[in-house]
Amino acid sequence: MDAYEESGFPEIKAIFLAQFHTDLGPMVRLSYPEDAVEVGEQKSFAELSNAKSDEYHHHQYQRPSGEMVAEEGHGYSSYNGEAAVEVIRLIKRPAPATKPESNKIDFNSIQTLVIPKLTLFERLITVCTGRHKVMCYPVAVEGNYARNALIFNMCFAFGVDADTKCYEPVVKRVGCLLKELEIGGRLLSDPEGQRPLKTMMRQLVTKLNAHGEYQIELDLKGLAQSMVSTGISIRLFPHYDNPSEINLYDVPVRKMDFEAARMKSSSSEFQSKVASETVWDMVLDKVIHCIDNVNHVRRIARLAQIQEDWVILALKHLDYFGCVNLVDIFQFGNIYEPQYQLVGLYRSARLQRECFSYVTRDGKTGDIAMDALAQMYLTMRNRQTVAQWVIEQKLDLDRFDVRRFVMFGVMNGLLRRIHCYPVVCGPPSLGGGKEEEQSEREEEQSGREDKRQQEEKRQREGAEAAVESPAQAQQPSTREQQPAPSSEPKAIDPNLLRMLDGTHHMDEISVLLDKDIATLKDMFQDYGGIEYVYH
C-alpha cells in the first residue's frame, strides 16, 4: 500500500508548467509524466486571424446545380441561373461522435483559468476537467520581457474526487518559490533552467506520493552567481476543519479509545492522533474521564469540577482532531426525521455493518436483519417521539440499543433532530375557555363574600372572649386560615421568560435552568399563553 493511501493524502496524477507565449498564447512548456497533458494544435495569433478570414470566405453560400428554388408566384422549380431567388435550406447536421473520456488532462478546456485574467493572479484556483482536478497558482513576473511580464503557472493534477485541501499551501509555496527563482536567477526565462525544472517536477510527484515530503537541492549553475544551489523542503500536513461551536447542552461522543492512547504500547494510529507521551494536560485528562456518550457539557464540567469555558476549550481540541462527535441530548421524548443521506446507507455495505455492530448489544438483533436497519430509519417520521416509535416497531430493548441507533443516525447525517421551541404568543391565561373563566369568577366572588363573613364573625367572637377572659384572648388561635384561591397566573422567572422568544429550544432551557423538560412544560401550562414551534 502506498504512503498516500495510508496517510490519507491524495495522489498527484501529474504536474505541468503552463506559460503564456507571446505568439502562441497559453501553452504547456513541461509536464511530468510527459504525455499527461493533451494539447490541441497551437497556432500563432496571425495564423488564427488568417484562418478565420479564410474560413469565412470558404463558407460563402454557393448554390449547387439543379437545386430546387422558390420563384415568386410559383411553386418549386429547377435551378434557372442567376435570376433565381436564393433559398437557404436548414439542414440538421448529425451530432458529432462523442469521444471516449481520456485519462489525459484536456488543456484546451482549462487554459483560460490556468492563464487567467490579471485579477486572478497569485490566487489559488481549482478547476475540474474530465477525470482530473487541477489546482494551480498563476504568477506574473514584471520585467524586461517581450510583453513586460512573464506569466506562468505550475499546476498539480489529482483525481476528480480527491480532497486537495492539504495541498493548498504546497501549490502556493511552489508558485512563490518559482517566482523568487525567476527574479533572482531567471530560472524560467533562461533555456538552461529547463533541466532543474524537470528534476524538480519529477521528484515532486514521486517524493510527495511516496513519503508525503520533498527535499532537494536544485543545481542552478550557469543561471545566477549568487544562487549556485537552492534547497527546497516541502512536507504535507493533514487538513482539519475549524472546530464547531460547542454549547453547554451538547453531548460529546467518543470516536476513539482514549485509554489505549495513553499506553506506550498502543498502536501508532492512536499515538499519531493524540500523543506519544503518557503525561497529558490535566484539564483534558479530567474531561476525558467524564465523557461517557451521555453526559452533556455542563454535567461534565460539574463532575470534573472544572470551569465550563475550560471544558469547552478541551472539547474543541478533541473535536478539531476528530476524536469526538457532538450530538444532542437523547431522550425518549425526542423527535427525529430521516435525511436524504440515508441513500448512502442503502448503497454502502460497510456502513451497514458499522451500524449493525454499533446498535446491537451482543452482536445479535433477533429477527432484525442487517439490511432492515436502513428501513427502520425511514419509519421515524410523522412527528413521532422515540417512545412512540419503539412501541410501534415492537423492538426488543434487551438486544437493540435505541440510544446508539439514534446516535449513529445523527452522527452520520441519517437523522435530524426536530427541536421544540417555546414561544410566548399572548398574555398569560387563567385556564380554559370562556365558561371556565365565568365559573372561576363566580367562585372567586362567593369566596370573597364567605371570607368577609367569616372575618366579621371571628372579630365578634374575639371581642366577646376578650371581655370574659383577657388571658385567653392573648393565646393564639388553633384554627388555620385557608388561603383564598388565587386568580392570578403562576409567576415565571424573568430570565426564563426572556428565553421564550423562539430562539431557544427546550434542551437549552432545560440545561441552563437545571430543570427537566416535563417540569418546564408544566410551568408553561400553568402560566398559559405559550405555544410550541417544532423545527
List the helices and strands and how they pair.
Layout: H1 3-7, E1 14-21, E2 25-32, E3 37-38, H2 45-58, E4 69-70, E5 76-77, E6 105-106, H3 111-114, E7 125-129, E8 132-136, E9 139-142, E10 149-159, H4 168-185, H5 194-211, E11 213-219, E12 229-235, E13 251-254, H6 258-262, H7 268-273, H8 282-289, H9 297-304, H10 308-320, E14 324-327, E15 335-338, H11 342-347, H12 349-359, H13 372-378, H14 386-393, H15 402-411, E16 415-418, E17 420-424, H16 434-468, H17 470-473, H18 494-498, H19 506-513, H20 517-527, E18 530-534
Parallel strand pairs: 3-6
Antiparallel strand pairs: 1-2, 1-10, 4-5, 7-8, 8-10, 9-10, 11-12, 13-14, 15-16, 17-18
Helix pairs in contact: 9-10
